[in-house]
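Journal club side-thread
Mid-discussion, someone asked how the predicted structure for our own chain would compare to the paper's figures. Pasting it here so we can look after the session.
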Amino acid sequence: MTDAPWGPALLFCPADRPERFATAAARADAVIIDLEDAVASGAKTGARGALIEAELDPDRVIVRVNATGTADFVADMATLSQTDFRTIMVAKAEDPRQLARIDARFRVIALCETATGIVAAEALASLPNVSGLMWGAEDLVASLGGTSSRKKNGRYRDIARTARARVLLAAGAHGGIAVDAVHLDIPDTKGLAREAADAAASGFSATACIHPSQV
């Protein structure tokens, strides 16, 4: 694993909204162009076309691709081979063997957002093509049959805090970066500031954002 070239604020942008690409890149240290959850299944083909046409600095772009083992992942990677973008975030990363088979031209950020992915975090972090890890709270809790990662006061439940710590420790043990999860409550700027400060103090290299106001 190696250090990331970008700074601490990463901003997600749907791949099917190319009119937002430049603004997102200008607002944040790097933009995460999202081909997964942010794009409806019927819009993915058009989103991939928009990615091919995008005029962005490849060093400041991460592309979130669909989970390995899916037809969408194959299509995403075929699209990326037609671009200069070489950093990918693999959604729902779980199987080290599948990530190890990814074309060596790409640096990988493994997004651990299921129970299986969190348990596999250290094995994923140890792969030579994996540059870092990110974790996701809501999908993780959903994979366990839960309903919310947070308590009524907005603080993470213990299961989410445990997952966050495991991802940070796994990344750090293998010399890689760790990216903290998004703060879904956009108006909660106080909670966002608290979590971002804690992330920096704890050793996370970056925090992902879902709205420009969070950057």
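Post-session note: The CA atoms of residues 112 and 207 lie 14 Å apart.
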